Amino acid sequence: MEEIIRIHQLSKHYAGSERYALKDLSLSIKKNEIFGLLGPNGAGKTTLISTLCGMIKPTSGELRFNGLSYRQNRRKIQQQIGIVPQEYALYPTLTAVENLYYFGSLYGLPSSELKRRISDGLHRVGLTDFAKKPIKTFSGGMQRRVNLLAGILHRPSVLFLDEPTVGVDVHSKEVIMALLHELNAQGTTIIYSSHHLNEAQHFCTKIAIIDAGKIVVEGEPQQLIASVNGATTLENVFIHLTGSQLRDYA
Ligand SMILES: Nc1ncnc2c1ncn2[C@@H]1O[C@H](COP(=O)(O)OP(=O)(O)OP(=O)(O)O)[C@@H](O)[C@H]1O
């Protein structure tokens, strides 16, 4: 499979911090993978995703997207990226359509095409009847579905997801996961970060476990499970490799 993201010896040190958030991290992500970035609290997952989205600059190291260097092509790369953050990016007083129209227009989509995509998207996630209601009246599951649509209206080639199903009921979760599988089948590479190890085990085609800013292990979920004596789940592998010590940093 063709490579879409190459990370070479990436390090990030935040000003004033006692330790590196990422240290000499190297990774290759292939087109069309569903790549899970897992790790304990403070491992460096958000820092890595924010760097790959071009939102923060690394202290050192090399990053490439489709062969392009981030240094010279940041904007071009950002147009091909979709981000679905854990915190809702939505404006509570605006309706679902108004929110989606705002996010879609940031990517310069023509109005008629954007309206069509919004209408199709809301239909796809079962929210047509709520299109003109303010987001503040939506349940957590409804907001997560709109949050996901906001990140995919411009049809990104790589989609970053941070805990896409946290706080949602099983029905909303099924709709979200089905839509993500559909996007992946249409060619979207997915980079997924979560603490839901069971979800990751079934959803991801490849997984990297990060701890203290470094890759501890990477591979297909079943390969990783088979590599640890007595492990039957990804959670067993995770605990075996990262230990059971609490990660409390301030
Ligand atoms: N803006 C910042 N300034 C200083 N230190 C930061 C900043 N953001 C993150 N860090 C530190 O960098 C390290 C990695 O944090 P990061 O948020 O990337 O981890 P994470 O794996 O996403 O954690 P979590 O699972 O808790 O979201 C932590 O030690 C954190 O305290």
TrEMBL record:
Q: Which UniProt keywords apply?
A: ATP-binding, Nucleotide-binding
Q: What are the coiled-coil residue ranges?
A: none
- List, alphabetically, the InterPro entries matched: AAA+_ATPase (IPR003593), ABC_transporter-like_ATP-bd (IPR003439), ABC_transporter-like_CS (IPR017871), P-loop_NTPase (IPR027417)
Q: Which domain of life is it from?
A: Bacteria
**Domain ABC transporter: start-end pairs:** 5-237
Q: PROSITE patterns of this UniProt entry?
A: ABC_TRANSPORTER_1 (PS00211), ABC_TRANSPORTER_2 (PS50893)
Protein name, as recorded: ABC-2 type transport system ATP-binding protein
Q: Give the species this sequence originates from.
A: Parapedobacter koreensis
